[in-house]
Specification:
The protein is of the alpha/beta class. It contains 12 helices and 14 strands.
């Protein structure tokens, strides 16, 4: 297949490009490197330096003989160029990662909020129109987030909800209760994508992904220059990464609030497999389908205890500290999210075991001198 990956320089985009290239697909990526600019703007960087894209792609071609084509484009600001890219490459499938990925970043101030929503919502709209302009049969796989749903007091279905009201029945998009301006941008994306599927007959798979952990894949392990980013800071980092780094530096694992907040999680290798399954089993014309893309649910206290246990196995005396929650969110809540569609397509989950956490801790220990401890604690508040 001819697969175009938007945001191909990113944490998930680059491993996805290698993974699909390694399986014989013709892969091209689009990126404008703005994520690297945002990192520099707020003074953070990954634990391990990430090589420029052209050098990673060159190393990949040397190792495998397979070329990953690269286009530079800001999809939110240059719709004519993205049209040209679609016309030149003629993709069968488009995988859309090209969005600002951080809830805290979107809550820093007005500028970061507007940047997030413009980049994400307008970028997705431009992709919608590029598909309609080039070939309406293109299958769009869009990375959403489980954060669109929030924490409702009912079971979370996969995108849709069957309801009865005043004796009448209907099927509607599941009500959304987003946690941040970032999550709201994903909600807007989903609404726009459902609309064009219903009205134009577009083919869309919306992957509502949980929190991803890990940086190791079969492809990144082929050479040190093929690594992807490991963020631990309070803006672009994830909670598991932060706990792992804190344990490696003998710092307390900082749990926000009471620690009973529950979310879905998955290994990066499962992300790649989920995207592959969606690619190989495309949506029908006029179908807007939603897959909840995660494999396990944990609350923060359980995650912290699991990391502390793995750290103890390596002789690291990790402790746990509860700090004031910088976010406005429910801490005590019901959470039961369905996630059966990808399992039915063949996903075999890799679970968050002590061995997996130990491997992450060993990576953190090897690079612990790169850690900037000043960037770990939260400095962005949802409400001042």
């Amino acid at each position: 297949m001819r697969i175009l990956i938007l945001g191909g320089d990113g944490y998930l985009g680059w491993p996805t490009a290698m993974y699909l290239s390694n399986r014989g697909h013709e892969v091209a990526v689009v990126d404008n490197m703005v994520k690297r600019f945002w990192e520099a703007e707020i003074g953070v960087q990954p634990l391990i330096a990430v090589r420029p894209f052209h050098l990673r792609a060159k190393r990949w071609e040397v190792l495998t003989g397979k070329r990953i084509q690269f286009y530079t484009c800001d999809i939110a600001s240059n719709h004519r160029h993205i049209y040209n890219i679609f016309e030149q490459f003629q993709p069968d499938t488009v995988i859309h990662y090209a969005e600002q990925p951080s809830a805290p970043f979107s809550m820093i101030d007005r500028e970061k909020c507007v940047t997030t929503q413009h980049n994400n919502v307008v970028g997705t709209l431009n992709i919608i129109f590029a598909i309609q302009h080039t070939n309406p049969d293109i299958h769009l796989i869009k990375l959403g987030t489980m954060g669109e749903y929030g924490t409702p007091n009912i079971d979370i279905e996969e995108g849709w909800l069957d309801l009865e009201h005043n004796g009448r029945k209907d099927r509607v998009l599941y009500p959304k209760k987003a946690h941040s301006f970032y999550h709201l941008s994903k909600v807007h994306d989903s609404a726009n994508l459902e609309f064009v599927s219903r009205v134009w007959g577009s083919r869309v798979t919306d992957l509502n992904q949980g929190c991803v952990y890990g940086i190791d894949t079969d492809e990144t392990a082929m050479h040190p220059e093929l690594n992807t980013s490991f963020h631990y800071d309070a803006v672009f980092g994830t909670v598991i990464n932060r706990f792992v780094i804190q344990a490696s530096r003998n710092l307390p694992l900082t749990v926000y609030g009471g620690g009973t907040q529950t979310r879905g999680y998955l290994n990066i290798r499962d992300t790649l497999r989920c995207v592959e399954l969606a690619t190989l089993n495309p949506a029908e014309r006029g179908e807007f389908r939603v897959f909840n893309q995660f494999t396990e649910q944990f609350d923060l206290n359980t995650l912290a205890e699991n990391v502390r246990g793995a750290a103890a196995g390596l002789g690291l005396p990790a402790s746990i500290d509860h700090i004031a929650n910088p976010r406005i969110e429910q801490e005590e809540h019901y959470y039961n999210a369905k996630h059966s569609a990808l399992l039915q397509l063949g996903l075999e989950p890799r679970l968050l075991t002590q061995d997996v956490l130990a491997g992450m801790l060993e990576t953190a220990l090897r690079h612990k001198d790169n850690v900037d401890e000043d960037k770990i604690m939260p400095n962005v508040k949802w409400k001042s």
